[in-house]
## 1
Amino acid sequence: MSTSVIVVGLCIEGDQALDLDAFAQACGLEAGFVRALVDEGLLQPTVEQPAWRFDGEALARAQRIRRLQRDFEANLQSVAVMLDLIDEVERLRTQIGPVE
């Protein structure tokens, strides 16, 4: 028996942004959980008024949060620490440039 996997992608370019419901669906999350991520400061909407809008960077971050929670069975506080460390490593790599 063979198993097929269907992968669906979403490309968000430039100034395009998703509303809360479309963003939650694209991330595979509940809208309430996205609200909790914003409340915890883990996600930042690109536009807050009149309604939240999220860009591609927020989508990638939300997917990273979801993977960290799933893979490490981490709570939001632990995910926040992991994200801070990942962001710091990326910042330092940018500072030192390419390593040969």
## 2
Amino acid sequence: AIRTLESLSCRTDVLIRTKDTAPQTTLHRKERLSNMQGAFAAKNVLEHETYIVVDDVVTTGATLADAKRALLQAGARRVLCIALSH
């Protein structure tokens, strides 16, 4: 089904940071990947809905990957990831 912009909502109550992590910019690729593992949990997920996660910058994709993992584990039907810069 095609949805219009009016049917989208911006939710800031879904992803929760579960651990403090070092800034990604200070780490090498392997460290960035392990740094973000388990960094997010999800709550208030509407099961069977599609979620769009927006990140300002993506390098390794570790932040988006962990956010996606948390949403899917919490019952999201699908998660789309968008980065504003690469």
## 3
Amino acid sequence: RPCHREYCAQRDRQRRELVLRHYGGDPPRCACCSEAHIEFLAIHHLKAGAVHREEIKSLYLPQWIIRNGFPPWFGVLCHNCNQARGNYGYCPHERG
């Protein structure tokens, strides 16, 4: 079991990094503030994130993106910019 758990964790990290590089460049960066630490980056829904998350239920988002051919309605933001846009509708970086 521990070996399988570590294998799954490593596979998920690789999938996440593949998706971040696809949408955020190499190395991936936040589209708003240019944060480049991969640990701080998030996959950002460019439209209707809550609706989409409900549709795919519990499927791991990077896995869904890869299976569906990297649809164009995703991007990369850092967790701070992503959270601000989700809660306030804008990021403080956009307002200077």
